[in-house]
Amino acid sequence: METVRTRHRQAASRRRAIAGWRLWLFAAFALGAFVAVVLHFGEIEEFGALMAGAHPIWMALAVALQCSTYLSVAGGWSLVLAAAGTPVPLPKLGRVAVTKLFADQVLPSAGMGGNVLLVDQLRYRGASEGAAVAALLLSMLGFYAAFSGFAVLTFVLLWFHDQATPFVAGIVTLFLAVAITIPSLALWLRRRGSRPLPKSIERFAVIKALLETVAKAPTDLLRDRKLLVRVALCNALIFLADAATLWVCLRALGVNAGGDTAFIAVIMAQIVVTLGPIPLGLGSFEATSTAMLRLLGVPLEAAFAATMLLRLMTLWLPLVPGLVMMRAMLFSRRPRRQALSVTKAQQDIDLT
Question: Domain containing 307: what range?
């Protein structure tokens, strides 16, 4: 019987791996096709000149804005940990934010890879397990609260630009439904505690792992509305920094666009990525951001170039320090685990 179950698990694992590779191939194809279309309809020489002529001072400002996003993420966690009585220094949390981004991209697992890493790293740095889980849940609630508010604001701005079409309204409405459902599911799992799920649901490893994690969060922290508002504001700063980064990239390319134009492009692109199944939003983010910028009057080549610069700083460049920090984190923990094992063995000897 156990052999049959093992074979079923292995077959299911192979099917998930194949499905994952198909999504990655589709994402790469979508991104390549989008780049080809833009370069076909735009002037390749003009695109190359724009990228080569990007002003270094503006680009340095864009990098600084992106660095601030990790401090904002860490700031949200810091607020929760301080409220729980187990504070962790902000620089250490900043490094955790970079490694979490790496884990989210390389080991997506419906977002559980980075979440498990976050709880583990916060505990390693002195936070209690309940405080670490509360930081995870409140940051997720704050993220969707800020995201939902900005989605509504984006639709209002599009309405002022006479671009609030029924299609856009449908996308925003669908996203709001998702943004309400995901935090509601997490809170429902928290109220269930450690009670077992129905067998039809428990077989999903992601839901089971989420249940085991959220059940450990302290209720008093989750009910602290002032704390939730402060965490939501930290997450709001991340979206604003991304929008500011896109605006700065446009200025670096010599395009004087409005701040609301960059804001609309970033939020709509993030909405499409959230609703889509494509890994990392490859192709979908670039296409949506470029289309929204073009719709609001930015030349095609500049819109595409600014979007690619934004993605370079928000997605690709952070993966390098994320990998380095992840390796350093894994190697630094081995001696401590060995030391703990030695200490435990010594205690056993002393007792005997």
Answer: 25-332
